[in-house]
Amino acid sequence: ELQKWRCPEYYENNVHKMQLPFSNKLLGSTVASEEKQEKRQQQLRRLQELNARRREEKLQLDQERLDRLLYVQELLEDGQMDQFHKALVELNMDSAEELQSYINKLSLSVEQTKQKILQSEVNIEVDVVDSKPETPDLDPLGSEQSLEDVESINEFEPLFAEEQPEAEKPVAAVQPVFNLAEYHQLFLGTERIRAPEIVFQPSLIGEDQAGIAETMQYVLERYSKEQQAILVQNVFLTGGNTMYPGLKARIQKELLEMRPFQSSFQVHLASSPVLDAWYGARDWAVEHMTREEGWISRKDYEEKGGEYLKEHCASNVYVPIRLPKQAPRAAEAPGRASGSGNPGEQA
């Protein structure tokens, strides 16, 4: 079966595709224009605050360096040549002319930064709502920073550029057209033939339990060889799981592997495996229709609660059954334990 599913054509013809429900209301295209305008205003304010903070930091650093250079210039004016030359070496400068050139540049930079700060405080509100056509949102789940947010930030950034060379505007990418319904689909392929294997190997899903074949072998080993031969003549399969295609053949294969050579067995499949349990309950109810022990009144249930059903005679009370010991292994045990210490430890 798995070999068939390796063929792409077979997969396309047999895979089951199920469309899961989803809502178009999650798309950003349905967001009102007022919400988009508010979002852009928030982005603008955030960029203004960011640029203002960068200008203040730059102004503080330039002012500190300018104060240092002015202090060195005062040493020259006071005639303290030794300290002046020592300070020039620390500043990695060669002459007083170079020092004066740096002071002029820093003074101009400090003045320009102050002017920008004053101008940004005056021009706080900038109308950029209709500066570019609206594009549909591509972030239906509402992440922290969608593609539209990035484009808006790139749009506002030139308004607050800090002496950066103008870069070429990127070419607008073509928005992909896709069907969102395809992202909410469930495909069932090889899972339909792999799922029943869990009945035989529960470890596939992390369950520490025995499968059907192991359970049958465990039960049969509790009886003698004669009793095993009788039991395997009436292996009865019922229940919803027995409707898996090929389950009866799989049980026969497992029995063939665990039974002795040339031994016989019979596997029977129920005619109505899904309704067998209901038929059994119906027959029991009809048989106990006139007996009080087969029923419980609403008054008793409301008074004693659901836990009372566990004690009721009609419930599936757990009754421990003592199975006979394994006859074949018991017969072989003395021979294996001969001349090898404590038989109890061997067992």
Automatic annotation (TrEMBL):
Main location: nucleus
Subcellular location as annotated: Nucleus
Gene Ontology annotations for the cellular component aspect, listed alphabetically: nucleus
InterPro entries to which the protein is assigned, alphabetical: Actin, Actin_CS, ATPase_NBD
Keywords: Coiled coil, Nucleus
Domain of life: Eukaryota
Coiled coil (UniProt feature): 33-67
Pfam families linked to this entry: Actin
Region (Disordered): 328-347
Family of this protein: Belongs to the actin family.
Protein name stated in the entry: ARP5 protein
Organism ancestry: Eukaryota, Metazoa, Chordata, Craniata, Vertebrata
